[in-house]
Amino acid sequence: MSAYGTRTAVISLGVSCQTSWQIDRNLGLLSDLVGEPLHRASSPFDWLIMPPMSFASWMRSLDCFPASADDIVAHPNFYWPEHNLHFWHEFTRDGVVALHETFDDTRSKFEYLFRRFLTLRGFSRCVFFVSNTQSNLDVVRCVSPRMDFRFTHATMAAVVAAVRAGVGPMSEVHFVTRHDGADVDPDPAFNIHRLGRDAPEVLGDDEAWADVFRAALLPGALAQSCAA
Predict the structure, then answer these.
(1) Is 47 in a helix, a strand, or coil?
(2) Rounded to an integer, what distance in angstroms lies between the CA atom of residue 210 and that of residue 27?
(3) Which end of the chain is more exposed for a tag (fewer CB within 10 A), N or C?
(4) pTM for the complete prediction?
(5) Alpha helix stretches (DSSP H) within the chain
(6) pLDDT digits (tens, 9 = 90+) for 167-196
(7) Which DSSP letter does residue 69 get?
(8) H or E element: which one contains 176?
(9) How confident is the model over 95-152, as pLDDT tens digits?
(10) What architecture (CATH level 2) is domain 2-66+111-217?
(11) Domain segments of the chain: what residues?
């Protein structure tokens, strides 16, 4: 999930489900921090496995969804080679693969979600979070070796540029990484946050994420919480 108010939105950019889950889990806190009620709302990127460069590639393109079901490889979680991402929770019905049967409905859903995403251009403040902290990403890399979830200077710059080109210069992008910072290039040009501790659970540590949200969203708070 992501979260929308009337002036402010807090949006998940992946790279995995943990970001969406933690926005959902901390909805009350986020509402308090931004000073208005936020409501759960889906975004196109909530439930994907998607490296940072895949997001940037997707946003730069004009294709919000594959042209046909034949463009997707089921190996095992519906891989889109063009942008190197997985539709991790799509194209099944009652737990059974149903790629062709569900393709048109899923395309309609993503077209709607992208239209909603572009309404962010009218918001006063848009805050985006992207994390590489989900504990099963090593397993995903075994399935898809091309996927690189590290936050390098180049990948962070590409993500920020893609967000600002799509939504506007008011966009704030925050990168959330492991407590030891091993998967990120320390760089004062970007908003980088280290979790207070790593969680063995796929969905993360609620309190550690709450600290990240406070650092990012409190008025006057320094967004850069990663030591150089």
Answers:
(1) coil
(2) 10
(3) C
(4) 0.91
(5) 17-25, 27-34, 52-60, 99-118, 137-143, 153-166, 206-217
(6) 998 899 999 999 998 899 999 999 999 998
(7) G
(8) strand 171-177
(9) 899 999 999 999 999 999 999 999 999 999 999 999 999 888 887 878 787 899 999 9
(10) 3-Layer(aba) Sandwich (3.40)
(11) 2-66+111-217
